[in-house]
Design goal:
Oligomer: heterodimer
Largest sheet of chain A: 10 strands, mixed
Number of strands of chain A: 14
Number of helices of chain B: 9
Number of strands of chain B: 10
Distance between the termini of chain B: 20 Å
Largest sheet of chain B: 6 strands, mixed
Number of domains of chain B: 1
Distance between the termini of chain A: 25 Å
Order of helices and strands of chain A: HHEEHEEEEEEHEEEHEEHEHHHHH
Radius of gyration of chain B: 17 Å
Helix content of chain A: 40-55%
CATH architecture of chain B: 3-Layer(aba) Sandwich
Order of helices and strands of chain B: EEEHEEHHEHHHHEHEHEE
Strand content of chain A: 15-25%
Strand content of chain B: 25-35%
CATH class of chain B: Alpha Beta
Shape of chain A: elongated
Structural class of chain B: alpha/beta
Helix content of chain B: 25-40%
Largest interface: A-B, 24 and 30 residues
Chain lengths: ~400, ~210
């Protein structure tokens, strides 16, 4: 009779022991699989948060509205490893070099000033990102001489998307801009029009005749390292009077609850693995001791210690695999409610503005493979510990201790 | 015919005590040998050496002229010797028939019938058999193996008189009719009386005390 035949007969006929061991595997690996799955989802969400939270470091001069930050400083900071994107902001008042109908009570005005705000990406920060204003028509992605204007102003003047407007430089030159979009103030109680224009920073630089900025936002790649990046930037600008502002409140808020869940799951996983390893080792050690007589007999008929240990390993592995199939099926049904329960307890939510959806909990092949790996390690360690006495014993001593 | 030959066999425990002090003996097929001696004289140690479960401090054990160390102890235990224990040593999660099949792929039922078990008894778990029946299963297992040398350590020690006689008869049959070399370590006078040759182990040496 081969060792695997003996192994299968043992598992089938020693039902109580098989069920006991199988139950221990089921419970401990269920917890492991749940923990692994939730940890995976949590890590995915953390990455998503890091990518979508727009954590950034802003630098601005002491005179908040003056354009003082130069491209050299920006280039140095942008070259840092943790800097992903840059959003430059500059401002200038420019007179419209044309008649402007202020309305019947005021009359026509020549050279009325508009307040230009230049920004690389209007969707990253500012009024449109924070939804105090919204795009009514056209596009937010302006470049070159394209601008976005107040919809009320545009309508009152009979302008539209595509209208070209002349603006006057200090030297007297004129730069023509094209209306590419119109905006309105989001607050329905505030219907006042405003003389603000949103454009690219390059257009503002053209007006001011220099490449200078009043604020630069440096969006980081890895929000968890923002403090280190802040120190590096502080060092770079130490000879200037620029101030630094770290903006990662959203990331901190989102990630703190995630970190709580992650920490809990990691602790639970570790405790479960250690505890189940200990329990399985203890159980197997007791059972191997009970089967000393069998081991002695098998040695006396010419079976090797390796074959005896292989039989023990196969017995445990068969029970483990049966439990594993059961727990995989059960976990696939329960992982979603369990995950939502744990996230609910940890008060984890999606990002505002729907940027990050609520998590979906499900099992992946990788989760199952990792759990299988953990279970196999537990079995291997437990079998090794439990069979050390057998490995160290002399066949004669085993048999003489029986009789 | 495979003879078992012991040449100047010595054995020393790890504490330095020498228990076998140079044993010379020849065991032939077709005979029942009984080894007797007081408790602690080294009978079980001698049997362990004969069974390839341990190695002597010096001297040699040869089967059919070949040193068992050269054969390999695992190979020797698998193919040349078979054990019968005092406490039967059957595997309790296997049936009687499956215990016999540990060493062979042939059907165990004819041999089990020969040692006095019915087919119905052969299909039972060993825990459902009496002591005598279990020992018969152990003997059947030993007889079903390829081994020509049967080593029995107090095979009747846990049995009543009547059952013990049945076992003794089986061992005699194994030797005389199946040409096995049967070596029995025993305290039983009855078993010693039924052996062909009786050795006494005393003072670490083996002496013949009876030849039938």
């Amino acid at each position: 009779m081969k060792f695997y035949q003996r192994a299968f007969k043992y598992v089938v006929r020693q039902k109580k022991k098989s069920v006991l061991l199988g139950s221990i595997f089921f419970v401990s690996l269920f917890i492991c699989l749940t923990g692994i799955s939730i940890l995976r989802v949590t890590h995915e969400m953390m990455e998503n948060i890091a990518a979508n939270s727009n954590a950034n470091i802003s630098i601005f001069p002491s005179d908040f509205f003056s354009n003082e930050i130069d491209e050299t400083t920006i280039d140095k900071i942008q070259a840092m490893e943790n800097i992903q994107t840059v959003n430059r902001l500059n401002r200038i008042d420019v007179p419209l070099n044309d008649y402007f109908d202020m309305g019947p009570l005021i009359g026509d005005v020549f050279g009325v000033e508009f307040f230009f705000t230049g920004m690389d990406d209007l969707s990253l920060d500012g009024v449109f990102a924070h939804q105090t204003k919204r795009l009514q028509a056209g596009t937010l992605e302006v470049s070159g001489h394209q601008v976005i204007m107040d919809a009320g102003i545009v309508a009152s003047q009979g302008w539209k998307i595509g209208t070209v407007l002349p603006f006057k430089l200090e030297e007297g030159d004129v730069i023509e801009v094209t209306i590419a979009g119109t905006y309105e103030i989001f607050d329905p109680n505030n219907r006042e029009s405003e003389f603000r224009i949103y454009a690219s920073p390059e257009l503002v630089n053209e007006f001011q005749g220099d490449e200078l900025y009043s604020q630069v936002q440096f969006f980081v790649r890895v929000p968890s390292e923002i403090e280190k990046t802040e120190e590096e930037i502080e060092h770079l600008i130490k000879d200037t009077d620029y101030a630094i502002s770290v903006n990662d409140a959203l990331y901190q808020r989102m990630s703190s609850s995630m970190k709580g869940v992650s920490s809990l799951m990691e602790t639970l996983l570790m405790v479960t693995v250690v505890a189940s390893g200990f329990i399985v080792s203890l159980l197997l050690s007791l059972w191997v001791r009970e089967r000393r007589k069998e081991a002695g007999l098998l040695l006396s008929i010419g079976e090797s210690k390796v074959s005896i240990i292989a039989q023990r390993l196969l017995e445990v592995f068969v029970i483990f695999m049966v439990s594993f199939v059961g727990l995989a099926f059960t976990n696939s049904l329960l992982i979603a409610p369990l995950g939502n329960l744990i996230y609910g307890l940890g008060e984890v939510q999606g990002l505002p503005n729907g940027q990050l959806e609520n998590p979906e909990f499900y099992l992946t092949v990788l989760d199952l493979v990792q759990t299988l790996g953990i279970g196999s390690v537990i079995i291997f360690i437990a079998i090794t510990i439990s069979t050390i006495p057998l490995l160290r014993s002399h066949p004669k001593n085993i048999l003489t201790s029986i009789d | 015919m495979e003879n078992l030959k012991l040449e100047d066999l010595k054995y020393e425990y790890s504490n330095g005590q020498q228990v076998l002090k140079g044993i010379h003996a020849d065991f032939e097929s077709g005979k029942v040998y009984a080894i007797v001696g007081p408790s602690g004289c080294g009978k079980t140690t001698l049997l362990s050496l004969l069974g390839g479960l341990d190695e002597p401090t010096s001297g040699s054990i040869k089967v059919a002229g070949e040193n068992i160390n050269k054969l390999g102890l695992l190979n020797y235990r698998k193919n040349k010797v078979a054990f019968i224990f005092q406490s039967f040593n059957l595997i309790d999660y296997l049936t009687a028939a499956e215990n016999v099949s540990l060493l062979t792929t042939e059907s165990p039922y004819p041999m089990l019938e020969k040692v006095g078990l019915t087919k119905e008894q052969a299909k039972r778990s060993t825990l459902q058999l009496s002591g005598g029946q279990q020992q018969r299963v152990a003997i059947a297992r030993a007889l079903m193996s390829k081994a020509n040398i049967l080593l029995a350590d107090e095979p009747t020690g846990n049995l009543d008189e009547e059952t013990a006689m049945g076992i003794i008869e089986l061992l005699k049959e194994a030797a005389h009719k199946m040409n096995k070399c049967v070596i029995v370590v025993t305290h039983s006078h009855e078993l010693a009386r039924n052996a062909d040759i009786v050795y006494q182990l005393k003072g670490g040496l083996l002496q013949i005390t009876q030849i039938t």
